[in-house]
Amino acid sequence: MLSGLIFILLPLILGYLVRIEQPARLAVVNQLVNASIYVILFLMGMGLAGLEQLGAGMAAMSGQAVILFAIITPLNLLALWALSRRSALRADASRVVEGAPMTRWEALSGSLTLAAAVALGVAAGVVLGLMEISLDTDTLAEWALYALLALIGCQLRSSGMSLRQILLNRHGLFIALTVMASSLLGGLLAAPLLALDWNQGMAMSAGFGWYSLSGILIGDQLGPILGGAAFFNDLSRELLAFLLIPMTIQRFTPLAIGFGGATSMDFTLPVIQQTGGVACVPVAVVSGFLLSLASPPMILFLLSLSHV
């Protein structure tokens, strides 16, 4: 049962064993991660184009993404709202940062660029189909996935977050656990509506906002339609987070930090820093780091249960 899980997790583990401290080398790793993500999403788009009924497949993908998002989002918001009412964590309006490294619009454009990579893959797949040229996109995507997992493991190890820093930041830990629990519950409830097994529904929800990875892992195991649904579900979370963070961070700080999920340590972090102050930054980084660390093994473990 676990042999496939161990095989696909091996690159992630091996990558985590490599710690890079030189900024120049780490920058190269980051660039390779970004390139790998674009390549795999492009190949996922080509896989969608290879479906016999492309229009029906795209419609099914959109419907599944809407169902997943409509169930998970209220549960996330309700759980994080309840945590916010009990938490002492509050944003510091007096220490709001006016100029952060990345504006919300720059981060938003980055998210939309990833979606465009999928669309370009679909277009390329349609063109190659008309030219009667076939590529083994599944094999190419699989090897690119192994490389991506190894690079991500290296990224996580080189992030500078020690175990002590993570465990001592109880706000970040509670936020991450709340997002995990409410998301997995949402996936469990959505599974019958998506005509999936319970573990597959939970796997669809275990991206925790890491759309570039969740779509890839789900697509590799369950096909491009479900991979696309997972991708757009998590992408929608980030897009909504950009709107919610400024409106909620002063009154419901854990909700604002947590709703972005894994992206709170990168894409949504500048908005959190700008609107919530520097005190929110370590909490957001710890929360996002834990969700990023938990997402790949959790998705793969849940999917491995299908082979029992």
Characterise the protein shown here.
The model is unreliable at 96-101 (pLDDT under 50). The longest helix is centred in the first third of the chain and has 33 residues, at 54-86. With 308 residues, the chain is an all-alpha fold. It has 13 helices and no strands. It has helices spanning 3-16, 23-49, 54-86, 104-130, 137-157, 163-168, 170-190, 198-205, 211-222, 224-248, 253-259, 269-276, 280-304.
SSE order and pairing:
Blueprint: H1 3-16, H2 23-49, H3 54-86, H4 104-130, H5 137-157, H6 163-168, H7 170-190, H8 198-205, H9 211-222, H10 224-248, H11 253-259, H12 269-276, H13 280-304
Briefly characterize the structure.
The chain has 308 residues and is mainly α. It contains 13 helices and no strands.
Tally the beta strands.
Answer: 0
Residue fraction in strands: under 5%
Distance between the termini: 6 Å
List the secondary-structure elements in sequence, H or E: HHHHHHHHHHHHH
Largest sheet: none
How many helices?
Answer: 13
- Give the mean pLDDT: 81
Q: Indicate the structural class.
A: mainly alpha
Low-confidence stretches: 96-101
Rg, nearest Å: 19 Å
Q: How would the global form be characterised?
A: globular
Proportion in helices: over 70%
Features:
76% helix, mainly alpha, 308 residues
